[in-house]
Amino acid sequence: MSYLAKPKFHHPALPENTLGYTRRDYEGAISTLCAGCGHDSITAAIVEACFELSIAPHRVAKISGIGCSSKTPTYFLGNSHGFNSVHGRMPSVLTGASLANRDLIYLGVSGDGDSASIGLGQFAHALRRGVNMVYIVENNGVYGLTKGQFSATADDGSKSKQGVVNIDKPIDLTALALQLGASYVARSFSGDKAQLVSLIKGAIEHEGAALVDVISPCVAFNNHVGSTKSYDYVREHNIAVNRLDVIVGRTPITVDYEPGKLELVQQHDGSWLRLRKLNAEYSVHDRRAAIDFLLEHEAKSEIVTGLLYVASDKDELHADLNTTDTPLNALSQKELCPGMARLEEINASLG
Amino acid sequence: MPDTLAISRVNDFVVRFANTNGSGSASANELFARAVLRMGVPVAARNIFPSNIQGLPTWYEVRVCEAGYLGARGGTDLVVAMNPQTFAKDQAGLEPGGYLIYDSTRPVQKSQFREDITVLGAPLGAICNKEYNDPRERQLFKNIMYIGVLAAVLEMDTGEIDTLIGRQFAGKERLIEANVRAFHLGRDWAIENLPCPIGLCVRRADAVGGRIFIDGNSATALGAVFGGATVCAWYPITPSTSIADAFSAYCARFRIDPETGKKRYAIIQTEDELASSGMVIGAAWNGARAFAPTSGPGISLMQEFLGLAYFAEIPAVIMDVQRGGPSTGMPTRTQQSDILLAAYASHGDTKHVLLFPEGPAEAFEFSALSFDLADRLQTPVLLMLDLDIGMNHRLCAPLRWDDDRVYDRGKVMTAADLDAGKDFGRYLDVDGDGIPYRTYPGTHPRKGSYFTRGTTRDRYARYTEEGGPYVDNMERLLKKFETAKDLVPGPVITLASIPSRYGVIYFGSTSPAMDEAADLLEADGHALDRMRVRAFPFNRDVDAFLRAHEAVFVVEQNRDAQLRTLIITECGVNPAKLTPVLHFDGTPITARFIAAAIAARLGEAAKQSERAVA
User: Fold this and answer.
1) Residue B368's closest CA among B233, B483, B220?
2) Minimum distance, in Å, between the CA of residue B237 and any CA atom of chain A
3) Touching check for A162 and chain B: CB below 8 Å?
4) pLDDT grade for A251, boundaries at 50, 70 and 90
5) What's the CATH class of domain B3-201?
6) Looking at the keywords, is Oxidoreductase present (chain A) (predicted)?
7) What whole-number distance in Å separates Cα of residue B158 and Cα of residue A54?
8) How does A177-210 read in b/e, with b if 16+ C-beta sit within 10 Å?
9) CA dist., res. A196 & res. B485, Å (int)
10) DSSP assignment of B255-321, as one string?
11) Residue B291 contacts residue B319 (beta carbons within 8 Å)
12) Stretch 183-212 of chain B: residues touching chain A, C-beta under 8 Å
């Protein structure tokens, strides 16, 4: 970690996006995580994704729970409001925020302890409600801040740094998300930035509950031989089902790829997901097959990454609730308060 | 029983209906209460119900009281005993000289009746069986029929009941006709066969005035609608559920965009109260007015979030409709036992704003006010109702709303303020009142963003673990709490007709019983000044009242004298000065109880001083 303040100057020729922002405009304070932490790569991927999509930084609300992962919103999007809430409760805070203002982009950042242990209930219910959000789990299988206890995503048989073997079954958050009805489910690896950036971009463009489970090795407590969430282990066991590109606002060019290996999926906001299939059999539209595929490869100790599922039907909380297009926090008193005349009517009916 | 003993009273008695829940008796019983009201006589109605849906005993008590006392009185003058399970107990609860109405279809041995009461048997089951074939109809019309019997023996105006039935089943002519017929079947039978009238009588009066009859939960929900709440997050729990139900119904009526048909509100039934409080905090952080109705067990679950909202300074409105605790306790009975839990909710040093409405009219007013207070103070506000206020219809002043009133959204910095170069420090006390400015997320592309956290930070919301900024911040929060003292509703003080050394403090649903108890005590020669506390932190007038009296009774509905503890702690009063008067069996406190407890203490004190003189 570094204790130095981040310098504000930058190269004058730094590229700008269509809004005129440079990558630096999407950065935050300097990270206080351990050098080499997978989470810092995720931070960089979020910065890159937001830059590339030309998102106005202040239109993002970043909300987290508690833990190493949940500290990271300080390190990206410094011009966005952030909320480091309560352990395991990011989803409810994010849901409330989303109810208040449907126009912002909600980036929920959590960890495996935060989402799979203490916050499993809120994880489940936010996904099943279809809250329009990007839910990123920075998944390292251990509690970092309390020095290396197993979390609920640690694999059965995985060894801790002290040599203790985990005897509990792991929770696969992607399989769970598929079962719960999340409409965009992806897994990635913090060591594969290209894949991660495009999966985050796809999630941001997606309208509905998008989960991105990112295996993110903990260099301090879970990067040793015997761990199933170390850099080496994940690299060796990574099975990517596809590579994704996200194209916003224009028809994608498709000539680069072999026919039959490419699939185009249009999202509800008009953006295109261009999927280069690495596994010809795998379909991103079949929830049940996706769960089977995950279970099958989990049995072989393989870690499936890529876009695992994207729903073809729109399923989003505000649409389900039929709330006004004007954000609830922007309604005027006139629109909200019925006034004395209506109260007189009520009084009259209660006599 | 000699006639001379029979209770003889006009417009001043208590009727109790003993039923089985799920039998459809509630609407018939309410019909009776409303009919008395329409005759211009005040009533206080209370539902006493079990934690189940079907088959257990339930009671509905109607206190008919032209003098206007709306607290529970205690004792029953007439019981309509429709539940064989509780027949003996219901009879035992009658005052000497009281009246028992029962279904005489199945004979009851004379020895099973008390000798000091008047027994009025009516073969309701037999009449129903003769008149109706459908078992459900037999049950439902039996309920209306005993109202007919009551109307006969109490000499009630049948026109009012006919009107009410018409109103209740408006648009369903067949039902109106059937119910009116059942009512008159019961009444006619009673007139022919029972010694009508009896000693009790409802006589037309003019003591109701323009008052309305509404339950506190509906009034609270309406307050939330008028107060501009747009987000309601709730988890089902008795006795608060009907707040969410009523909010939903009122919003469907008042909050639909006429052009698009879309909703200007969002209601989420959450997975638990952790989530409901989290959603309220998330929504309020983002500039919407949000609330979570709950009861004690929910407040227990919200502890961590309440601490976050206190420390991170986020408005949050929580309604606690208190019930009997601890644990699951008495889920369908009333208490005021969450006072300390709410006042100091969460770990670490915390204090929260509490409001104590006395009934539905104040529940409406305080509910709307709580959103202004939460925004102004940027902190949780807990509206402390209880089951007695929340779930019972209460006669109260018509609800008022000033159309010139403008919501107080508190200190919010806008994009224009930021562009004008105003210094924005999220935790910077610019005005000296302990309240900083905030910005809503999404306000400005380059200015005004900040990081909200439950960890320590400096005045500009920058993370720090230094003791200095931590203490600075905690002391500012105390200053803010001082500011709150002048913003919350002050106490209502009622002085005795003659100067008194004694005071009594009470709050919330104790109010009507206390008013009546004061009259009883004064008639007995005990004059007391009384103060109804309406909020925490205690307004400065509370300190003045404590100083002005030699001894003060604190009347509350819990075992541990929680308000008294709060007063001792926060006002620095000598505990010996405050005598607790505690009622906590789950039934609403009564004037008789309060008056007896205070009179006994005052009697002892008088004896002691006599002894001292001797």
Assistant:
1) B220
2) 19
3) no
4) low
5) alpha beta
6) yes
7) 74
8) bbebbbbbbbbbbbbbeebbbbbbbbbbbbbbbb
9) 52
10) -B-TTT--BS-EEEE-SSHHHHHHHHHHHHHTT--EEEEE-HHHHHHHHHHHHHHHHHT--EEEEEE
11) yes
12) 210-212
pLDDT digits (tens, 9 = 90+) for B575-589: 999 999 999 999 999
**Residue in the block written with tokens 């009630």:** B156
- Which two three-digit tokens encode residue A6? 């981040």
Class of the domain covering B492-613: alpha beta
Bridge partners of A185, per DSSP, are: A211, A309
For A162-203, how does the pLDDT look when each residue is reduced to its tens digit (9 = 90+)?
999 999 999 999 999 999 999 999 999 999 999 999 999 999
Tokens standing for residue B196: 């009508």
Tell me the pLDDT tens digit for each residue of B101-144.
999 999 899 999 999 999 999 999 999 999 998 888 888 899 99
Following DSSP, what letter does each residue of B473-513 receive, concatenated? HHHHHHHHHHHHHHHSPPPEEE--SS--SEEEEE-GGGHHH
DSSP line for B25-39: HHHHHHHHHHHHHHT
pLDDT band at residue B414 under the 50/70/90 scheme: very high
Weakest mean pLDDT among A330-344, B276-290, B595-609: B595-609
Query: What is the C-alpha separation between B592 and B513, in angstroms, rounded?
Result: 8
CA dihedral A235, A241, A246, A247 (to 10 degrees): 140
Q: Which of B274, B281, B455 sits opposite A96 (nearest CB)?
A: B281
- C-alpha A117/C-alpha A136 separation (Å) is 15
Q: How far apart are CA A55 and CA A77, in angstroms?
A: 10
User: Do B214-396 and B3-201 fall under one CATH topology?
Assistant: no
- What is the torsional sign of CA B10, B12, B17, B18? negative
Tell me the C-alpha distance between B102 and B82, whole Å.
Answer: 6
| Token pair 């679950």 in the structure block, residue | B301
Show residues of chain A in contact with B213, CB under 8 Å. Answer: 350-351
The model's pLDDT over B40-57, given as tens digits with 9 standing for 90+, comes to: 999 999 999 888 888 899
Contacts of B153 by beta carbon, 8 Å cutoff, 6+ apart: B99, B101, B120, B190, B194, B196, B197, B198, B200
For chain B, the structural domain boundaries read: 3-201, 214-396, 415-487, 492-613
The amino acid at residue B213 is: F
Nearest to B279 among A73, A96, A333 (CB): A96
DSSP label at A10?
-
- The hierarchical CATH code for the domain B214-396 is 3.40.50.970
Q: What is the pLDDT of residue A258?
A: 57
Domains of chain A, each with CATH number or no CATH: 23-322 (3.40.50.970)
